[in-house]
Amino acid sequence: MVRSAFRLGKWRQDQRQARAVLVELLSVAAKHIAFQASKRLKGLKIRLDEDLNPQQMKTRRGLSIDFQFLKSRGYKPFFRGVTLRYRDGALIRKCASGRGQPG
Q: For residue 100, is it left (φ>0), alpha (ψ between -120 and 50) or beta?
């Protein structure tokens, strides 16, 4: 299932946050299994993210204001690919990009 795994960044004795771990999986099916199992990690300070290309990172950074706005309004925003979505009760909605508001 795991092809390789290693820590990113340099180790420092005064480091307050844990370093990220880059994990290379053997197949797309293994990735889906890992993401489904990640729901059990909710209470821990562990999360799984997909590796993004530079264009996807730039797009997500551009939506950070919208993300914070949704969070401040009590919604639960998250990204699916480069699309900002949020939970509204039991519904999952797509954010109207760049408008800083749900919808």
A: left
pLDDT tens string 61-76: 889 899 999 999 988 8
**Cβ burial 50-59 (10 Å sphere, 16+ → b, else e):** eeeeeeeeeb
Length of the chain equals 103
Query: What gap in Å lies between CA 84 and CA 68, rounded to an integer?
Result: 11
35: Cβ–Cβ under 8 A, 6 or more apart, which residues?
48
Long-range contacts of 25-32 (CB under 8 A, 24+ apart): 25/1, 26/1, 26/2, 30/1, 30/2
Structure tokens at 92: 């999952």
pTM of the model as a whole:
0.54
Evaluate whether 5 touches 22 at the Cβ level (below 8 Å): yes
